[in-house]
Amino acid sequence: MASQDTRISRRTILIAGGASAGALALAGGAFWLGTSVSKTLTSGNPTQSSLPGFGIEPEILRSSGGKLTVDLVAAYSEIQIGGKPAKLKTYNGTTPGPTWMVKPGDVITVNFTNNLGEPTNLHTHGFHVSPAGNSDNVFVEVADGETFTYQYTLADNHPSAPFWYHPHHHGMAADQVFAGLYGAIVVEDTEPIPATKERVLVLSDISLQTDGNVAGANMMSKMMGREGDILLLNGQVQPSYASDQNALERWRIVNSCTSRYMKLSVPGGTATLLGKDSGRYAQPQKVTEFTLAPGNRADLLVQLGSEPVSLSYTTVPHPDAMMMGSTQTYTNYPLAQFIPGSTTAATVGALPTQTAGPDLRSEAIADARSFTLKMPNMGGMGGMGNMNGGFTINGQAFNMDVINTSVKLGTVEEWTIINDTTMDHPFHLHVWPMQVLSIGGLVVTAVEYQDVVNVPANSRSVIRVHFDKFEGNAVYHCHILDHEDQGMMGIIEANPA
Question: Which residue range or ranges hold the Plastocyanin-like domain (predicted)?
Fold first, then answer.
C-alpha cells in the first residue's frame, strides 16, 4: 500500500499576473500576532516544574445508560488567544466546544440554541446516521434566538472513532467554523484499546484584527480557501501538557481548519496510526508523519520516553503562497508539547485485533459515476473581479431545490472524483463512509474507509460506497468550506430499493 500522505500536492495552483500582497490578505487581517501569540515552546529539555501552567482540554460530556443529552448554545464569547482577548463564535462559551463521549448504540439528544444573531445549524461530521428529520439534517435552519432539538441514534455496530460537529448552513459554514464553532465527538471502543492516557486534540487556525474580532475573507481568500495566521490546538497557542515517563498515550486528532492541510509529526515519540476518520486499519501503521486534509481525523497511539514530545506541523508546500501574500511557512512547528514528569507509567496491555470493515472491491456495483470538480478561472490576477466560471460539481453549482444524484438503498456504487483544477480538493460525503480505492492514481491495497478523501490537483480519486441504510437527502462537497459555500456541493437522495 502506498502512503496516502505522499500523494497530496497541496494547492499546486499556478496563476499568471500580479497583485499586491496586501490585496490578497484576509480582509481586515492586520497582523495581530505579537510575541505572546507567536511564542516558541520552551527549548531544550523543559520539566513540568519549569512551566508556568499546563494547557487545557475540552470539557467532556459522557453518555450514561445509553443516552447523552447536551444543551448546546452557539453565541459570541470573549476568550483569550495567546494571552490576548478575542471575540469568537463559541459553543457553550468555549472554542472548541465540549467533547461528546459516546458509545455504539447510544441515543444523543442535543438541545441546540442559536444566539449568534444569524442563522446556523449543526452537522455531526462522519456519523453514520439518518440525514432526515431532526437527525443529521443539514437542510435544517435554526434562526437566531431559536432552539432546535437534534437527536442522533447510533447503531450497535457504529464505527468507534473520532468525529466532530460544526455548522453547515449553506453560505455561512466557512465564516462560522473559522470564527470558532467546532467540537469533537468520540465514539468509544466496545473493546478498549490499552493506553496510559487518552487525549482529544482539536486543530484549527484563525486570523484576528487588532481589536480581537475575527478577520473576514476577501475574494482571493474565498477563492483559495482561507488559512489563518494563528495556529491553535484546543483553542490555545502552543499549550504544554503533563505526561508520565514511558507513557503510551492515545491522541484523537481533529483537523477542524476550514482549508488548511495539516502535515503532522511527533518528534521525540513513536507514533502508530490506528486509522483515519471512521476507518480503522486492520494493520496499524507506524508513521513518522501523516497528513490530515480539512475535516480528516486521526486515531494515534504515541509512545513517550523520558524527554518532551511535541505534535508538530509542517506546511504542505504550494506555490500559490507568494501570490496569496502569505509568507508564513512552518517546519516542525510545535503545536503542543507533552512533558513527562518524575512518575513512570505502568505498562499497558497489547493492542487488540483491529477490524477494517468490509472490502467492497468484491461486491457487484449498481452504478459507476463520475463527479468533476471545477472552480473559477482567474483570467489573470490583475483582474480579481474577472473570474470565469464558478465552483461546481459536474457543471452544477449547489441548488437547494435540485437533486443531483439518486441512489438505491442496499446497493454499492463506484465513484470517480475528477479534479480538473490546479489545487487539491478534499471530497466529503455525508452519512455513508467511503472505501478508498485510489488517490491520485495510486492504488490503496488495504481496506481503508474515510469520509473525507483528498483529490489531488489535475488528478482523480476512486471510492466505493455501500448505501446500506438511511433514506433521505444528504450532501457531498469539497471540504475547503469556502468552496462548499460558493457552490461546490451536490445533493444525494437515497431511496428504498
Answer: 76-191, 385-492
User: CA–CA separation, 480 vs 419, rounded Å?
Assistant: 14
| Cα–Cα distance list, 479 to 90, 124, 336, 414 (Å) | 21, 14, 25, 20
Per-residue pLDDT of 438-471, as tens digits, reads 999 999 999 999 999 999 999 999 999 999 999 9
User: Which residues are within 8 A (CB) of 6 and not within 5 positions of it... i.e. 6 or more apart?
Assistant: none
Which amino acid appears at position 454 of this protein? N
Place of cell 481525523: 297
Angstrom distance (rounded) from CA 407 to CA 413: 9
**Residue 313: strand pairing partners:** 264, 333
Q: What is the pLDDT of residues 83-92, one digit of tens each?
A: 899 999 999 9
Considering only residues 356 and 185, tell me which one the structure prediction assigns the higher pLDDT: 185
Roughly how many angstroms between the first and final C-alpha of the chain, as a whole number?
Answer: 35
What is the pLDDT at residue 166?
A: 99
* Beta strands per DSSP E along 375-455: 392-393, 405-408, 411-419, 425-429, 434-439, 442-443, 449-450, 452-455
C-alpha 455 chain-centroid distance? 15
288-291 contacts: CB < 8 A, separation 24 or more? 289/5, 289/263, 289/264, 289/265, 289/314, 290/5, 290/263, 290/264, 290/265, 291/4, 291/5, 291/8, 291/261, 291/262, 291/263, 291/264, 291/316
Q: Which three cell numbers stand for residue 310?
A: 511535541
Residue 91 burial by Cβ neighbours in a 10 Å radius (0-12, 13-18, 19+): buried
One CATH from 3.40.50.2300, 3.30.420.10, 3.20.20.480, 2.60.40.420 for 360-495: 2.60.40.420
Number of Cα atoms under 13 Å in the Cβ half of residue 456: 14
Q: Can you read off the three cell numbers belonging to residue 419?
A: 479534479
Q: In this structure, which amino acid lies at residue 439? A: I
* 89's grid cell: 463564535
What is the 3 state secondary structure string of 34-103?
CCCCCCCCCCCCCCHHHCCCCCCCCCEEECECCEEEEEEEEEEEEEEECCEEEEEEEECCECCCCEEEEC
Summary mean pLDDT of the chain: 88
pLDDT of residue 27 exceeding 90: no
3-state secondary structure (DSSP) of residue 175? helix
Contact (Cβ atoms closer than 8 angstroms) between residue 203 and residue 336: no
Question: For residue 256, what are the contacts with CB-CB under 8 A and spacing of at least 6?
Answer: 96, 164, 166, 177, 182, 202, 203, 204, 295
Structural domain spans, the chain: 360-495
Residue 166's beta-bridge partner residues? 123
β strands within 178-278, DSSP E: 183-187, 197-206, 230-233, 240-245, 248-255, 262-265, 270-276
